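Blackboard transcription, Thursday session:
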Amino acid sequence: MLLAVFSDIHGNRQAFEACLKLARAKGAERFVLLGDFVGYGADPEWVVDTAMELVAQGAIAVRGNHDQAVNSSAETMNAEAQIAIEWTRGRLDAAQRRFLAELPMQVADGDRLFVHSEASSPQRWHYVRSTADAAKSLISTPAHVTFCGHIHRPALYSMSVTAKMSSLVPKTDVSVPLLRGRQWLAVLGSVGQPRDGDPSAAFVLFDTVSCQITYCRAPYDIETAASRIRQNGLPHWLADRLSQGR
Amino acid sequence: MPKPLVRSGAVIDGYTIGECVHAGGMATLWTVTHPGIDVPLLMKIPRVSEGEDPAAIVSFEMEMMILPRLAGPHVPACFGTGDFAHQAYVVIERISGTTLYKRLSDLPLPYDEARQLVAKIATALADLHRQNVIHHDIKPSSIMFRESGEAVLIDYGLSHHNHLPDLLQEEFRLPYGTAPYMAPERLLGVRDDPRSDLFSLGVLLYFFTTGERPFGEGETLRAMRRRLWRDPHPPRALRADYPPWLQEVVLRCLEIEPVWRYPTASQLAFDLAHPDQVKLTARAERLNRDPLGVVWRRRFNQGVMQPRAKSDVAAQIASSPILAVALDTVEGTPELNEALRVTTERILATLPSARLACLNVLKLNRIAIDRTLDEQGSNKHIDRLVALRHWATPLKLDESRLSVHVLEAIDPAAAILEFAEANQVDHVIIGARQSSFRRTLLGSVSAKVASEATCTVTVVRPPRMAGDAGGSEMAG
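(Written on the board underneath:)
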């Protein structure tokens, strides 16, 4: 089965639409959503409604820190993220907020684990910045492949049975076999706010039979997404950074 | 780990096991057959039982990832893989014959035989590098030859694929590979520079032409590290008749700093194919190693081998293409030749490691016997070489990046295409057909080259003059 995995959509409708369309065109049969549906972008209602529909049709979804912040003021965030979350809170209705509040922190599906930040302590929202961070996550789970997002920069780590690590900045559209006999941590780039220098929306495809992962990029209408952010009075930097991919 | 299922007569995933043909330290090789596959096959099985070197598993994982994505005549075709959950294996095409290792008793080889042999290996390496793979274990026992002549590179257990995880990156504290052939930067942990393979091929060329390994056989890290500062004895010190061009090629491959070696395997293959065009430098005539002062500076000056930025194999190859410009020095108009030069200059400006081959076709008569001398008695071939060099002078290219070739042929387009193919040319620059009655009758060389070449072709026209519009032609 071909899974399409999306992370950090952040209320960016144009980016999410482009990713869904491309993933379907590439034959994706099941969707996984790794959290941070809202925050930063100007279309949280549409994104959450779409996520709810996909979940109703069998998609897997987990909770991100921005999703949690919608329902809790205890989450600490930077100033711009805080402004965006407060704005988002006013846009979502009770059903949408409840959907976000009830999302699980992680979902195990066969020998795969889906989590927003990393597996060692998902509720602490640690970033995977290095092989050491990746090792910490991999040691804490028996899963063959862990999928996470949160840092908005794609990376692929593996750990051998003797705990030796490898790391790779994945190349777009090149499929990589995730060999059995070692564990893998697939860190996804962001759908709605890429920060790896490439402004196009990021997601991955994973073939559960051949265990091949492919990092994909979808170009999208950045202009519209950015102008929606500006029109809604959100911080301008949130709009400007979209075209820079950082 | 499940018990190995492999024995003669057993069937794994449809492959019937035949006999064990090789039992090495890392893996065993078995002949296998599969209904529907009529190529001779080998199944490679890693040694994974208790007490075996963990390197065997990691190397095998690398082969399992890399082999299925390689293609072409210079690699063994891969038919299937099985993973460690059941029985790890790869099934590859069985190349008939033996590896180059069998030739060691014949060393040193005649210079020209070694030149042709290594040119074929360089061509194979170029093809591998184009597929984003660095072999990292180039040595006689990794090299075979097809009956059709192409070199085949085998054993990818230590290789690096630029688009795949490098599982060996953290696996070993010491560099893993074959000591006599290992490039100095490998000792510093660099695994992403394709020029490491050119160093190993240089070791092989040195060994095959002198009978001596340039860095000995030392296996200890201490012995290997010497190559970070100590250059080998120039081959001419071992064999007085060693051709200067060959020493130039060998010592360029063996440069300690990768940046001083050939930028690509294609460019090395080019020099080996055209020994008379090798630009000789001080390397060619040397009889002694670097003076001790230089060696000490290298050894104790921390700045000598700086950690380098991560290199991208594809980007490095793309920045060092072989360009060929086809010129008509006799009938080409000055405007067209100037336009060709301007275009060539612009392309070269963005590619500091590109090399340029200037071609001219000396057209032979179909029927009459050709005379080398023209009506005035001067040698046509030499005249044209001179004209090509003259055309290239304003480009101010370093001699090592420029070569000139006069091809003698009945069909100029076919000659240019053949040259491009044989020399792995990446980009042909050619003038458009000019409007003359004779050319119309003969058909257009540039059109044929543009449509049949396997590389990029740029067709150049002189700038259009005002009032020219009516006379211009469509595609040349």
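Lecturer's comment: Chain B has a mean pLDDT of 87.
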